[in-house]
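INTERNAL AUDIT FORM
Audit reference: QA-55
Scope: verify that the stored structure record matches its stored sequence.
Auditor: D.O.
Record contents follow.
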Amino acid sequence: MANVGVEGCGFEMQLESVYQLLHNPTPTDKDFLRADAILAVVFLTDEDDCSAPPDTKLFSTPSLGPQSSFLCTQYGITCDGMFPLPSAPSTSYSSCTPATTAQGTKLVGLEKYINFFKLPRSQGGVKADPRDVILATISGPTKPFFTEVGSGTTICGSGATTCTTLGHSCTLQGAGPPPFVGDPATRLEAVVTSVLHHQITSICAQDYKSALESVSDLISVALLPTCLDAPIANLKHPDCVVEDVDLTLKHTSIAACDDTMSQKPCWHLINIPTCAPAVCNPKEHTYQQVAVDIVRASAPPDGTVAEVSCATLAIANEAPDSECPGSPPDLSAPLDL
């Protein structure tokens, strides 16, 4: 499904296109972004991001060089302390990062996109809670990074027979013809890795099954309640403090749930088999995989973060295996609290 060719404009703007969809949606797309949903964005691309300002002259100034995608690299990436990158091809570079606005990049500064995905909505971000954002990329590895001589109008643009081009950082033979290739996605990876939940996969992988399964796992993790990494002394009477903390650092206590959960928000302990690893309670000689779940009637205000602290057994990590004999049990059955 991904092998659709590489024709078309060589100045791909992956980050700006996603930003426009989410920040300035068309009437058709206005209902895509939902307040009660996890946002997962997967970039599938063989080249790096080349998002440029609307008034850019980068693609219309002959003195800057041939109208090839190397312009995006030359004026958007800094390597080994050099910016812009030399017009002549180089064997390789050892350290390459996105150029900043202060350094003079002719592309959009990445702080625009990083802030959009990392900040809460009340501060200009895309989601009320930035932990609800998942970013993944299936693209070229950032290393090796080198430039070489390219030829032909497809690579160099009209009016140039040869030009400097960015070398492929990976190649997968047998996927074509032509073979799958990927160029270093330096800008794209910097944005993707800036968020808590992220995934990086090479576009030259044999298939993308593991990449998409990893994204699914990230979604599952983002939806999970807070797992406890040490055992509770008494599961029927846990000693926990649960609070909502807003952007002004105001703390609002959340009470424990009663049997009917009539007063919301409230919290209770639940058994989550995916909380790993299972922790040993040496006093009860049992394993626990327990999480604190907050039950709400409605979403909290933008930027609100829940803080959970529970009294646990301090000796948890020192308990010998003999205290909890056997392997951690399958706790998929409801926990008797």
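Auditor finding: record pair retrieved intact. Residues 209-223 form the longest helix (15 residues).
Action required: none
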